[in-house]
Structure to design on (140 residues):
């Protein structure tokens, strides 16, 4: 008999954010989105930047997070998400995310080293993803 849930953990360097049964998860990977359902084959993958959504059983609803960088492992019907950064969507505001994006866009790259240009590009991408998560929460 197939199980209808899997164990889902979100862990950052600061804390274990949650450890609960889930029915589905959608994870931003470095190359697109990954959907996870119960009974998924084992895997280890590199996570990207964007919105993590986890659906909980029964009337548990869904939770959404902005996550940035890390790894995802699924083994024995347990999903472990190790994120460098995770912020619950309800703690994000469009105004703060837009300010972060404006600041990132204001950084000059002319004459900068390739390393600095990559840092600026990554900061812009993070801020854009954070703004999408904040706006998505408003729409829901």
């Amino acid at each position: 008999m197939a199980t209808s849930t899997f164990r889902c953990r979100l862990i950052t360097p600061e804390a274990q954010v949650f450890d609960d049964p889930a029915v589905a998860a959608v994870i931003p990977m470095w190359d697109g989105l990954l959907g996870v359902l119960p009974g998924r084959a084992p895997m280890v993958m590199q996570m990207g930047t964007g919105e993590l959504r986890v659906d909980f059983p029964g009337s548990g609803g869904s939770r959404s997070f902005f996550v940035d960088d890390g790894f995802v492992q699924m083994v024995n019907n347990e999903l472990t998400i190790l994120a460098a950064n995770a912020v619950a969507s309800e703690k994000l505001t469009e105004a703060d995310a837009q300010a972060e994006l404006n600041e990132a866009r204001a950084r000059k790259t002319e004459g900068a080293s390739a390393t600095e240009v990559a840092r600026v590009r990554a900061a812009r991408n993070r801020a854009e993803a954070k703004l999408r998560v904040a706006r998505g929460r408003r729409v829901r």
Summary: The helical segments are 94-106, 114-139. Residues 32 and 40 are 18 Å apart (CA to CA). The radius of gyration is 16 Å.
